[in-house]
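Predicting holo structure, nickel (II) ion bound.
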Amino acid sequence: MILSAVWDKLFDSMVRKIVTYPAEILKRPTDRIDVVDREVKQLVRDMFETMYDAEGVGLAANQIGVPLSVMVIDTSPKEDAPDLKLVLINPEIVSSEGKIKYKEGCLSFPGLSVEVERARKVKVKALNEHGEEMEIELEGFPAIVFQHELDHLKGITFVDRLKGWRRRIALDKYRKLLKEAQKG
Ligand code: NI
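Done. Tokens:
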């Protein structure tokens, strides 16, 4: 259809607003995607655009206010990480091994970084941007990014990975950062 082609040209992709904690949508599990249609493909394009604009390496759809199970990852901006660009729809962990600790950041918690322990290696099952089933093994930094985004899709944020006083300290620090940001 000509109209839709024009529409696609006009709105090729756009930077969307990133939702920040404690927004409710970040605390709820996302829905699985039945069909990878034009709208989902558009969503993926916007997610990349938004992630690059914010200089992130991973983004989950609910972070731009869309409660669907899709994430984008691009670890190439990080110097010592592999050039890996991924779209993962309805992702699941098939198996995991090892442990790794890393100081993570999150676009939904501007300014905050916390050390989180995750699996060092994960085998992942998902659909790609064409709706085809895929399986991939991730290790090290890409595995960390994937697990961080998978948590988002389940309504879990990185502070939820902390326990007791560590969690309280991180949330206090974040509240202070929010206050400072509001003051400008
Ligand atoms: Ni995040």
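Residues 106-108, 148, 152 surround nickel (II) ion (CB under 6 Å).
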